Amino acid sequence: MHRLADELAHIKDLLRNHPHGMSVTEIASALGRNKHSTGRYLDILHAAGHIDLRTFGMAKVFTLSTKVPLSALLSYTNDLVFVLDRDMRIIQGNDPFFDLIGIKGEIVLQKRLDQLELSQPDIRTFLTELSDKIFTKNETFEIVRRGQEPRYYNGKVIPTIFDDGSSADTIILEDVTLEKEALRSLRESEAFFRSVSDHLSDGLIVSEFVDGKKKVIFHNQRLCEITGFSADEISHVSPEDLALPEEKGRFMKAIREAEIDQGSMKEIRFWANRKDGVPIYLSIRAKIVPFGDTVRGYILITDMTKWKKQEEAQLLHATLIQRLLTNFSHPIFIIGENGVFFTANPAFCDLIHSKQEDVVGKHVTEVMPENVAKEFIKGNDELVTKKESSHVHMVVPFYKPGGSIGDVLIEKSPVSSGVNAPTYIFGVVITDDICPHKNL
Q1: How far apart are CA 111 and CA 131, in angstroms?
Q2: DSSP 8-state assignment for residue 267
Q3: Cα-based distances in Å from 294 to 23, 149, 266, 286, 340
Q4: Residue boundaries of the structural domains of the chain
Q5: 202-307 has which fold?
Q6: I need a labelling partner for 51 at 20 to 30 A (CA). Which of 9, 76, 369, 379 fits?
Q7: Strand pairing report for 59-64 and 51-56
Q8: Packing angle between helix 35-47 and helix 2-17, nearest 10 degrees?
């Protein structure tokens, strides 16, 4: 027995000095033994876990085992570790495992998992399920310790051989509760983000730039509704592809500026076409920011077609009104509640001997004598208070053609753009119809 121990120790020393490994032939030559007896020594060491065997083609190479001793594993890991013999009896365990079952180690040893007397029903159920999973001989498994605060574990079953040649199973339970909760929270966050983004009035697209190539990693349903593309199609459509040919240059310029000035929001508006060819007016706001080792682009796309058409209609309406005021022969003015001119046509400005730029935005007292101004705005407050659509006529001392001041007929009516909008006085000076009585 002493000679066998010496031979085994000699082989371990040989392998310690040859970290790249040795074949059976090389070890036998170094020992001065035949290959048969050397092979028997190697089998003993391999079964005991002292050496490792690697195969290269037909050749077998042995190296000194680098396995961590089980005692060290039990002492220094936070995982739950215990060892079961062939009869499923506990022969070793670490403190985290004993803390879980709430029994001291010396009481637990040499007992089967299903023989432990436990006061907590959830722990009994947990150990029963654990025994079943170990018995199936699966190398890895998942298990849950149910209760008021469930805990989740990833389990591993590792076949183990001791120095005396006996075999056992080492079970390692890694507590992955935090990871499970984080994953669940992440999924809930993703579901929440998806729900919120799908109810946005704007389209949202997130792109990632990797090695100079752009890849769409997220988009919401609203983007499909705006552009007319399906969810599968939109992943292959870039925002610049939506722009009309004559608009692409402006769009690409805005994107380049966003890439240079990362973190700032860049906006561009342009006409585009839906998939079905219907023209749409889009507002695109882009922000490009670093994200780990990559760069991400966040783009909000707003359908402003209705707004754009209303703006164009309002602009046309304003242009027509301005042209009407300019070409109308009678002096016309619009004045606010505060007595400030909103506008006045050239005929009115000529009547009071002023330029249009010297009238618009000025108070009546700034463009005419105080006594004339006082009579000119008389009755305005009552019209503003009543907010009636009907008009009134009044004769007041005012400028007459030729420059003199005399009784002039003025027609006034209140105008407003909405219920809570300011009220203005729209007036026409009827210079060729002077009434001799002021109480007309």
Answers
A1: 13
A2: E
A3: 49, 39, 20, 17, 57
A4: 2-64, 70-175, 202-307, 328-430
A5: Beta-Lactamase (3.30.450)
A6: 76
A7: antiparallel
A8: 80
Please determine, for residue 1, whether its predicted confidence score (pLDDT) is greater than 50: no
Supply the pLDDT for residue 72: 55
Query: Average pLDDT, stretch 140-153?
Result: 87
Which is more confidently placed, 230 or 113? 230
Say which CATH topology domain 328-430 has. Beta-Lactamase (3.30.450)
Q: Tell me if 2-64 shares its fold with 70-175.
A: no
Exposure string (b/e) for 212-243, b if CB count within 10 Å is 16 or more?
Answer: eeeebebbbbbbbebbebeeeebeebebbebb
Cβ atoms < 10 Å from Cβ of 170: 17
Higher pLDDT, 235 or 341: 341
Give the pair of three-digit tokens for residue 221. 């349903």
Across the chain, mean pLDDT equals 82
Q: Is the pLDDT of residue 152 over 80?
A: yes
Q: Does residue 121 come out as left (phi exceeding 0), alpha (psi in the -120 to 50 range) or beta? A: alpha
Question: What one-letter code names the amino acid at 165?
Answer: G
Q: What fold does the segment set 70-175 form as a domain?
A: Beta-Lactamase (3.30.450)
Q: Tokens 């000699």 correspond to what residue?
A: 10
Confirm if 160 and 70 have CB atoms less than 8 A apart.
yes
pTM exceeding 0.85: no
User: Could you count the other beta carbons within 10 Å of the beta carbon of residue 10?
Assistant: 15
Q: What gap in Å lies between CA 341 and CA 331, rounded to an integer? A: 13
Q: Is 346 helix (H, G, I), strand (E, B) or coil?
A: helix
Q: Which phi and psi (to 5°) does residue 413 adopt?
A: -155, 145
**Neighbour count for residue 35 (Cβ, 10 Å):** 14
Q: Please tell me the distance from the alpha carbon of residue 12 to that of residue 274, in angstroms, as a whole number.
A: 76
Residue 344: partners with Cβ closer than 8 Å, 6 or more residues away: 331, 332, 333, 334, 356, 359, 360
